[in-house]
Inverse folding.
């Protein structure tokens, strides 16, 4: 129930998925839970190919895509290209995981936030709020 | 105000000072038995490292088979490693995909990044060229069961072609359930019920033909680094062993007492909770010996001996200020040896960003060589033995480990708790707690959430191997070459025979896998047979 007078926004929808075929799930699970507890609606995509990243993001009508990177940055770039080609260029993306430090600028140059291992969960949630314009996504009571 | 109650990572309360009253009676009794005797609390062998220095056993592998071969030769002949581990590309190897599979093509730049990529037996010949297979100790790969039945037969077939009898080969398989169904549940894995059949086939095959080969190896490491706490790791390892032994006994082909020694090569994680984890290794040996004696009535002490391989926690290695990880690696390595490990792999200092660079790899070996040569560590067996603190932890872990073991058995046993998601839930709960501790600062990691600086002198580059999709392109060429030049009908027939054998679990499947790889069936064709026959495991969590 929202307070009278406030303008209720539906919770932002976030697709969380892995770009690589690597099965390590620990980081993804921790981040997905933090986002959910902060009021986001989290869609778990599992291991998605770049083209699937775009098609699932479109089908689920998400406000944000979070990609867990367990491989090279070229695969993430391909996912960004696929999203642009599918008309989802305005859906913000952020990534986490074992991103090679020297490759980070290639993502940040395209407006993608990078959260390597050791990043704080509150910083990740804060960025998700900023990217989706949901200052108080947890306002549902 | 109540005082903050300190505890270990797995939740054992810590006192300021420990004394004789903190050591349980049965630990006192076990302490009186020297190493090399059941219950092995004090070590697996009578003279420990004086006779057998621990084996320096590092994960290695990337790129093409040529790259892998070069790296192995460097590690063996120059860096001074004493055994080889072939690390395979996990995308193609864990899934048994050919490199032209759609799942691979869209991620082609990742190929070769986590290990070496093979398309078939010919690539194993390249990986192993110039290596003296008759005299080295090898772990050829096969972390997950469905890949082990491709990888081990490939390694063995290369040796056979060189005229080396199988009984001369020394090494170990893995086929680990924790990796497959807990640590890294991936796409398209055969269900645990099918996997265990292959593991039992490997065990029986090796029992008959390969006296120097450990057919499968339970890897507590993968349970622990996925989130299970120290006592949960112990309990789950014992439950896994019981699953194998009960099924082997039911099959009735191999004597359980003979088998027990075969599966007694177990892998554990040592994390930065170093005292608890050294105690864990000591508790593990005792629990193993007690389990085999009490549950299976095995009186032969030798059959109740557990040999331990330790991998230091990859999750302890930080992305920030990676050189700090050399210090962490040294501490974890030291306590692995204090706990009495038989072999050791130290995670690379660049673990959080890539597979090890040459330099990171060499540092992992140097850490171990410094421990072996410079601090008299090899001369003493069980130097922690009799420490009130360590013995108290050992007793506590043993008790909590058995409680967790009973919990698993009460839920229907090891396979049941993989299938119903219980172990995954335990791991997730622990991981949430660890994350919360890092967030609040209660758990401190230097350079990450305390004493942080922004200084480029601490930066390193991640190892990336060949640029772009070059490794994949070269593998595509080898695959098309294989398909073009092999004896086509021979491959088709071997695959058809493999499928028949897979559908009939009264036949040992290993010879059919040997025939298939020897007939130049590709990795993906073998995978197709398994997918067709067994279907996929349904991962009981949404990640």
């Amino acid at each position: 129930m929202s307070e009278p007078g406030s303008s209720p926004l539906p919770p932002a929808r976030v697709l969380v998925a892995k770009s690589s075929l690597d099965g390590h799930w620990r980081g993804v699970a921790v981040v997905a839970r933090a986002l959910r507890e902060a009021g986001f609606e989290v869609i778990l995509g599992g291991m998605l190919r770049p083209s699937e990243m775009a098609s699932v993001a479109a089908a689920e009508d998400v406000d944000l895509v979070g990609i867990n990177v367990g491989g090279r940055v070229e695969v993430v770039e391909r996912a960004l290209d696929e999203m642009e080609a599918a008309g989802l260029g305005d859906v913000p993306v952020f990534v986490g995981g074992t991103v090679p430090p020297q490759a980070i600028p290639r993502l940040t140059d395209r407006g993608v936030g990078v959260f390597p291992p050791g990043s704080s969960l509150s910083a990740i949630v804060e960025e998700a709020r900023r990217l989706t314009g949901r200052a108080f996504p947890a306002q549902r009571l | 105000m109540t005082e903050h109650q300190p505890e270990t990572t797995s939740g054992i309360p810590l006192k300021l000072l420990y004394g004789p009253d903190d050591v349980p009676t049965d630990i006192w009794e076990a302490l009186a038995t020297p190493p090399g005797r059941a219950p092995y609390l004090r070590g697996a062998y009578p003279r420990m490292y004086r006779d057998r220095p621990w084996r320096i056993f590092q994960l290695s592998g990337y790129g093409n088979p040529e790259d892998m071969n070069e790296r192995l030769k460097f590690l063996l002949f120059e860096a001074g490693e004493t055994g080889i581990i072939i690390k395979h590309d996990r995308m193609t190897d864990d899934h048994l995909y050919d490199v032209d599979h759609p799942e691979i093509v869209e991620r082609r730049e990742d190929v070769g990044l986590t290990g070496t990529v093979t398309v078939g037996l010919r690539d194993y010949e390249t990986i192993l060229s110039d290596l003296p297979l008759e005299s080295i100790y090898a772990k050829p790969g096969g972390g997950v069961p469905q890949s082990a039945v491709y990888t081990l037969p490939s390694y063995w077939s290369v040796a056979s072609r060189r005229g080396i009898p199988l009984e001369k080969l020394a090494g170990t398989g893995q086929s680990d359930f924790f990796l497959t169904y807990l640590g890294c549940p991936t796409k398209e894995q055969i269900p645990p019920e099918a996997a265990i059949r292959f593991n039992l086939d490997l065990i029986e095959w090796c029992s008959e033909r390969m006296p120097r080969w450990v057919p499968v190896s339970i890897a507590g490491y993968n349970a622990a680094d996925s989130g299970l706490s120290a006592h949960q790791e112990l309990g789950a390892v014992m439950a896994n062993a019981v699953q194998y032994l009960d099924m082997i006994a039911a099959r009735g082909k191999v004597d359980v007492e003979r088998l027990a020694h075969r599966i007694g090569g177990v892998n554990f994680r040592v994390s930065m909770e170093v005292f608890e984890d050294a105690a864990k290794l000591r508790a593990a040996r005792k629990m193993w010996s007690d389990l085999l004696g009490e549950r299976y009535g095995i009186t032969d002490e030798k059959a109740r001996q557990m040999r331990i391989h330790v991998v230091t926690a990859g999750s302890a290695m930080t992305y920030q200020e990676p050189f700090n990880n050399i210090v962490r690696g040294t501490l974890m390595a030291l306590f692995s040896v204090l706990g009495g490990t038989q072999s050791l792999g130290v995670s690379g200092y660049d673990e959080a960003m890539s597979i090890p660079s040459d330099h990171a790899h060499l540092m992992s070996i140097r850490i171990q060589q410094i421990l072996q040569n410079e601090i008299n560590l090899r001369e003493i067996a069980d130097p922690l033995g009799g420490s009130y603190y360590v013995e108290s932890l050992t007793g506590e872990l043993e008790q909590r480990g058995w409680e967790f073991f009973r919990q698993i058995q009460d839920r229907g046993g090891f396979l049941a708790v993989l299938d119903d998601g219980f172990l995954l839930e335990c791991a997730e709960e622990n991981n949430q707690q660890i994350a919360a501790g890092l967030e609040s600062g209660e758990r401190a990691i230097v350079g990450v959430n305390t004493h942080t600086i922004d200084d480029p002198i601490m930066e390193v580059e991640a190892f990336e191997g060949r640029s772009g999709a070059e490794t994949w392109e070269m593998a595509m060429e080898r695959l098309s070459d294989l398909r073009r030049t092999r004896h086509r009908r021979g491959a088709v027939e071997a695959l058809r025979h493999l499928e028949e054998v897979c559908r009939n679990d009264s036949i040992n499947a290993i010879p059919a896998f040997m025939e298939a790889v020897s007939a130049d069936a590709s990795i993906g064709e073998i995978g197709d047979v398994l997918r067709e026959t067994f279907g996929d495991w349904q991962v009981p969590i949404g990640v």
